[in-house]
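INFO batch 0412 | record 1 of 1 | parsing
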Amino acid sequence: MNEIFKKRRNLWYKQNIKYLRYVFNDHFVLFLMILLGALVVQYINFLQIHQLNLWGKIILVILISLASQIVGRLATFIESPDKVFLLTKEMEVRAYLVKCLIRSLIIPAVVSALLVLIAAPLLRFNPIFLVLWFVLLVAIKAAWLAYKIWSSQ
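INFO prediction complete | emitting tokens
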């Protein structure tokens, strides 16, 4: 069973890598680097000029929390005929779904960490609070993905 899903995942990776080579060509990557540098400079200038009050911090925390939940979806590579053919291997499928859940949390966790780190200088919160906020964001995303797994069965 693991070989079937590994083959599907590799096929998906090959298809995406083939097209990403054309999307991220040299000029576009150079443009992204210049844009990132300009955004960093503007953010540093923004931090030196502005300070947020309590309501501004609350709004920013809510916006970042919502933005971090948008990114990422569950990737199981399970197709509709698998519900019939893999019915006898239910425990193996459950173990595979847990692996898929963990694998699907990598990108949302990275995005959440980046958003929390980017907002940290503006919010000026205690680092322990920032870590707890990150853990809470990842836990909410994990709960949502787990709900999607178990509700589809």
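INFO post-check: DSSP finds seven helices and no strands in the chain.
INFO record closed
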